[in-house]
C-alpha cells in the first residue's frame, strides 16, 4: 500500500498550491489559437508548454485522454510523457478518462491507470458509474491498494445528463443521490480526507432536483441546509471526499458558483479550468498569471 493516500496528498497539494485544477486538452481550437498544427507535433508543443508553465505551481493537472487517443499510439506516447513530466514537477495528475465497465475489463482499466507499474499510472481518474457503482469496485480497490483516487460522475452540466442523473428511484432518491451516497460510504473508514470523490459540474445550478413527493423529504434526508427552507437538493453532507468541479471559466462557471452548487461541501471543491487558462498561451508567463488569478479567486470563494 502507498505511504500516503490520495486524499492526504490532495489536501497537502491544495493547501500548498491552492484550490485549482487545470485541464490539458489539446483539441483543435486550442492548437489553432496557439498557431500550432492539428497533429501530434502541435499537441506536444501545446501540452509540454502547459506542463512547463503550471506543473510546479498548480495543485492538479487534468489531461483529457480522448484528445491524445485520437492520434493513436503517438498520442498515447505523448500522454505518457505529459503524465510523467507533470508528476515529476510535483503536480497531482488526474486523468480524465470517464471509464466504466464490468468485471475483468474494468480491472484492466484500473491496472492501466492506478497500478504504479503502468506507464500511464496517474494519481487519480474519473469514472462513469452508470453500469452501477458496484461495477467500479476494481477501480476503488486498486486505488486503495496503491494510494490513488477515483472521481465518480454524479451531476454533470450537459443537458442530456438530466434524464438519467435526476431520474427518481423507487426509494425517492435521484440516481445522482444514490451515487453520492455510495461514494460517501467508501470514505467512511478514511483517516482525514477520503480518496473517493465526485464530479459535479459548476453549471448544474444549485444541484436542485425535482421536488420530493410530500412527506418524503425527512424520510430520505436530502434537504440541503445550503438553500432556502422548503426546497430540496442533493445531500453532500458527510462525503469526506474531494469534489472535482469542471466547467469553470470559459464554460460558464464562476468562483461564486462553488458555494451555491456545493453548499457546505465547498470545502472539498477542486475547481477545474481549461480553455480560459490555455487561451493565454503560448506565453509561459501569461499562463502562470492566469492560473494565479484563478486560484486566488477560487480560494477567496471557498473561504467566504
TrEMBL record:
GO MF annotations in UniProt: orotidine-5'-phosphate decarboxylase activity
Annotated keywords: Decarboxylase, Lyase, Pyrimidine biosynthesis
Database matches in SUPFAM superfamilies: Ribulose-phoshate binding barrel (SSF51366)
E.C. number(s) listed in UniProt: 4.1.1.23
Catalytic activity: orotidine 5'-phosphate + H(+) = UMP + CO2
Matches recorded under InterPro entries: Aldolase_TIM (IPR013785), OMPdecase_AS (IPR018089), OMPdecase_type-2 (IPR011995), OMPdeCOase_dom (IPR001754), RibuloseP-bd_barrel (IPR011060)
Pathway where it operates: Pyrimidine metabolism; UMP biosynthesis via de novo pathway; UMP from orotate: step 2/2
Active site as annotated: 98 (proton donor)
Taxonomy, superkingdom: Bacteria
CDD domains cross-referenced by the UniProt entry: OMP_decarboxylase_like
Residue ranges occupied by any Orotidine 5'-phosphate decarboxylase domain in the UniProt entry: 19-290
GO biological process, one term: 'de novo' pyrimidine nucleobase biosynthetic process
Cross-referenced Gene3D superfamilies: Aldolase class I
HAMAP family the UniProt entry points to: OMPdecase_type2
Cited PANTHER family: OROTIDINE 5'-PHOSPHATE DECARBOXYLASE (PTHR43375)
Similarity comment text for this entry: Belongs to the OMP decarboxylase family. Type 2 subfamily.
Name of the molecule in the record: Orotidine 5'-phosphate decarboxylase
The organism of origin for this protein: Stackebrandtia endophytica
Gene name, Swiss-Prot/TrEMBL: pyrF
